[in-house]
Design a protein that fits this description.
The protein has seven helices and seven strands. It is of the alpha/beta class and 174 residues long. A three-stranded parallel β-sheet has the order 5-6-7, with helices on one face.
């Protein structure tokens, strides 16, 4: 289905997959180039192809700017190192074992009635994130609440609110 945020709509995400192989072991990473940051599949691919033949994760931060390309390569290098060590990435990073997490299910920006229907269809989910980003978003919030009265709601305006709109809406969101 179409997914809409304050800056536009999309029906697909183009994902770039990166593989780093060393000694018969392959690490995988991926990214989604974002036009918002002037990234395209071609520009991200060019950044990755411009990397030297050998480097490590520490060097990567000086080789690529923050963005999709660096993220994908960084993930691939973490995956490679974990596979070579026979460990999980969280172990390599010195972090505690991850446990179950509640994940937010995102409702696309739409007219209030449509958002209420989306909320009702997903009312069994404990956490709903709703895309907003217009000056008249309060009816959308109210519609989602009506559709999923037991869910916790997170709002995400994707930079679509001005300070004035936020100041007006914030007291009502409590």
């Amino acid at each position: 289905q179409v997914f809409t945020i304050s800056r536009g709509s999309r029906t697909e995400a183009q994902v770039l997959t990166v593989r780093v192989t060393e000694g018969g072991v392959t690490g995988w990473g991926e990214c989604v180039p974002y036009a918002r940051y002037d990234e395209t599949l071609d520009s991200v691919t060019a950044e990755i192809e411009g990397l030297p033949a050998r480097f490590d994760r520490a060097a990567l931060y000086d080789l690529l700017p923050a963005g999709a390309a660096r993220n994908a390569v960084d993930c691939a290098l973490w995956d490679l190192q974990a596979k070579q060590a026979g460990k999980r990435v969280w172990e390599l990073a010195g972090l505690p074992a991850p446990g179950p997490e509640i994940t937010a299910y995102t409702l696309s920006l739409a007219e209030p009635a449509e958002m209420e229907a989306q909320a009702a269809k997903n009312a069994h989910r404990p956490l709903l994130k709703i895309k907003l980003g217009t000056p008249d978003d309060m009816p959308r919030v109210e519609a989602v609440r009506a559709g999923a009265p037991g869910a916790t709601i997170i709002v995400d305006a994707n930079e679509g609110w001005s300070a004035e709109v936020y100041s007006d809406l914030a007291p009502h969101l409590v």
